[in-house]
Amino acid sequence: MAKLPIFGKVMAGTQPEYLHPDYRSSVKRAPTRPLILLPHSLSERTGPVFGQDCVSPNDCDLTAQHTGAPLGERIAVSGRVLDEGGRPVRGALIEVWQANTAGRYLHKMDQHDAPLDPNFSGCGRTLTDADGHYRFLSIKPGAYPWGNHANAWRPAHIHFSIFGAGLLSRLVTQMYFPGDPLLALDPIYNSISSEKDKQRLISSFDLATTTPEFALGYRFDIVLRGRDATPMEK
Amino acid sequence: MSYVPTPSQTVGPFFSIGLSTLCREKIECGAGEGERVVIRGRVLHSDGEPVPDAVLEIWQASEAARGDCEDETSARQEKIPAGFGRIVTNEQGEFQFSTIKPGPRSDEDGLTHAPHLAVVLLMRGLLRHLLTRVYFAGENANDEDAVLKLVPPERRKTLLAEPADDGSREFFWDIHLQGQRETVFFEA
């Protein structure tokens, strides 16, 4: 059996607290009793290993899932998944979902008065390669209103779900876009206390991954909890 | 060199777009060895109101190498790794999954674990996912379990799935987010 990854403690302040009253839904759902410190056993240090069977080749291209092209600004979102030791996480399963260019999700609970796009479902999946790289082709999602407070709007974002080496590596997060004026007003984004940690959720515009005449490139690197226990090869 | 893990954000209300393809209610497929059990329950607010938009991810760790297995409950016939399940609550806040009940385990570090499953809970309103465990009521090994011992005795029952009276191998386990019966959640 391969050596299991090592997990340290979560560094204080780098993750949002469960209760963040500005985000109204957290009030009824955040735990009210102190969490109990769990020793890291096999149950936490291992996790599901997803193979290529879970991903179809087209799953990483959200613009090619229908007969026509979706409306919106075409983007290529790419980056690397690394562990806390800075090593690439290979074979990490990434699932993404997002609103269309008008800010509407293909979901029965989304009541926003904006059009659906018959050529956009907003769902993608991929596995990282041996260097931890991933890439999705999509369109830039629109901002949309929500009921958290008067005139509340979510900044444009793409939801990311990632499985790394163990259950403790599990991460669900959201990727934002640089320069979005709604970020300063968003209680979900602002649930993270430090400015530096917030910045980790903002992708950067990247000319190097921008495809001429085709798609703007955005880079979003992800760091998962855990550290590989096997020594680095020379 | 040390890298700081990326902050978590809520899964939000529309996760089914991205997460439903790899949903599966059958955790362990196995070749019929061991006891097949079904666990049913609800996710509830403190006032008993159901949570219709929660995702449970179940992880049944095992030393043994196992093959992938297909399952008719997954949206596509994906080869989702054995030991893993993902279930979305319905409008009544209900969920159910089945597995082959794991055995007790002694880890390398000498800690004893009674049969259990690790549970990750995600939903709108949770900025980070919650981590808990489900055990089986009536197991002798529960008394020696390294994790249950860390839980105040009066709260341990929140982690125990109760068997049905009819001997059907069904177990019932509700998750209470808050209130008198608030489920024990872990920090790891």
Describe the protein.
- The complex is a heterodimer of chains A (234) and B (188).
- Chain A is globular.
- Chain A has helices at 25-29, 42-45, 195-199, and strands spanning 36-37, 74-82, 93-98, 123-127, 133-139, 144-146, 152-154, 157-163, 171-176, 204-205, 216-219, 222-223.
- Helices cover 6% and strands 24% of the residues of chain A.
- Chain A is built from 3 helices and 12 strands; from the N terminus they run H-E-H-E-E-E-E-E-E-E-E-H-E-E-E.
- Chain B is an all-beta fold and 188 residues long.
- Chain B has one domain (16-176): Sandwich (Protocatechuate 3,4-Dioxygenase, subunit A), CATH 2.60.130.
- In chain B, the strands form 2 sheets. In chain B, strands 1, 2, 3, 4, 7, 8, 9, 10 and 11 form a 9-stranded mixed β-sheet that branches. Chain B has a two-stranded antiparallel sheet with strand order 5-6.
- The model of chain B has no long low-confidence stretch (mean pLDDT 90).
- The interface between A and B is large, with 78 and 68 residues.
Short description:
The complex is a heterodimer of chains A (234) and B (188). Chain A has 234 residues and is mainly beta.
* CATH domain topology of chain B: Protocatechuate 3,4-Dioxygenase, subunit A
Mean pLDDT of chain A: 95
Question: Which architecture of the domain at 65-223 in chain A does the CATH hierarchy give at level 2?
Answer: Sandwich
Q: Indicate the percent of residues in helices of chain A.
A: under 10%
Radius of gyration of chain B over alpha carbons? 17 Å
The ordered string of helix (H) and strand (E) elements of chain B is HEEEEEEEEEEEE
Rg for CA atoms of chain A: 19 Å
What sequence of helices (H) and strands (E) makes up the elements of chain A?
Answer: HEHEEEEEEEEHEEE
Number of E strands of chain B: 12
